[in-house]
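Reminder to self: C-alpha cells first, then the designed residues, so the page reads top to bottom the way the pipeline ran.
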C-alpha cells in the first residue's frame, strides 16, 4: 500500500508508529497494544496522587453521587481539571468510562464528596497503569456487543445510565456510557 501511495503523493516512511496524540502504540507480531500510560502517570503527578494507595475499582459500587450531598463545595476549577483529564484517558480506558461520565455530571457545582469520588478513580488508575486496548492478529474476527443499564441510578432525577461496548475479535472498538434523556418506566 505504501508503494502505491508514494507514487501518487510526496511522502516519507517514518517507520512504525510508537506515540501519537498521547497514545502509546506497541506493535508486535501477534497484535497491537494502545495505551496512555505516560499520560495517566502525568495526570497522577499533576494531582499529587502518584504514590497513593490504589483501589481495585474506579467507584464504590454502593455509592450514588448526587447534587445536594450535604458536603461543602470543592474547588470547581480543580475538579473540572481532574475530570477533564480523566475524560481524555477514556480514549483507551473503557473501564473508567461509566465512572467518569457520572463525575462529569457534577462539574458545574462539585462537592468535596464528588472530589473524593474523582480521586478514587485516580487511585484506580494508579493501580492499573498498564491497562489499555489490545488488538490481536486473528483471522476470525467476530463482532460482539455488550450492554447494561443501572435502571434509575441517578438519585437527582431517577434517570438511567446505559452503556455499551463493541468488540472486534478481542479488542474493544467502540464504547459509551451515557445518562438517558428520559426516565425509564
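Designed residues (185 positions):
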Amino acid at each position: 500500500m505504501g508503494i502505491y501511495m508514494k507514487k501518487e503523493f510526496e511522502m516519507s516512511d517514518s517507520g512504525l508508529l510508537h506515540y501519537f496524540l498521547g497514545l502509546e502504540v506497541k506493535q508486535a507480531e501477534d497484535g497491537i497494544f494502545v495505551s496512555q500510560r505516560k499520560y495517566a502517570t502525568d495526570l497522577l503527578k499533576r494531582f499529587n496522587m502518584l504514590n497513593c494507595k490504589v483501589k481495585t475499582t474506579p467507584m464504590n459500587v454502593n455509592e450514588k453521587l448526587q447534587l445536594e450531598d450535604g458536603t461543602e463545595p470543592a474547588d470547581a476549577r480543580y475538579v473540572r481539571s481532574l475530570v477533564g483529564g480523566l475524560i481524555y484517558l477514556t480514549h483507551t480506558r473503557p473501564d473508567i468510562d461509566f465512572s467518569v461520565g457520572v463525575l462529569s455530571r457534577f462539574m458545574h457545582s462539585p462537592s468535596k464528596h464528588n472530589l473524593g469520588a474523582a480521586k478514587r478513580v485516580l487511585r484506580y488508575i494508579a493501580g492499573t497503569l498498564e491497562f489499555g486496548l489490545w488488538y490481536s492478529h486473528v483471522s476470525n474476527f467476530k463482532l460482539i456487543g455488550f450492554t447494561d443499564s443501572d435502571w434509575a441510578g441517578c438519585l437527582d432525577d431517577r434517570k438511567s445510565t446505559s452503556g455499551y461496548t463493541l468488540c472486534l475479535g478481542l479488542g474493544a472498538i467502540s464504547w459509551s456510557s451515557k445518562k438517558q434523556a428520559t426516565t425509564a418506566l
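DSSP finds five helices and seven strands in the chain.
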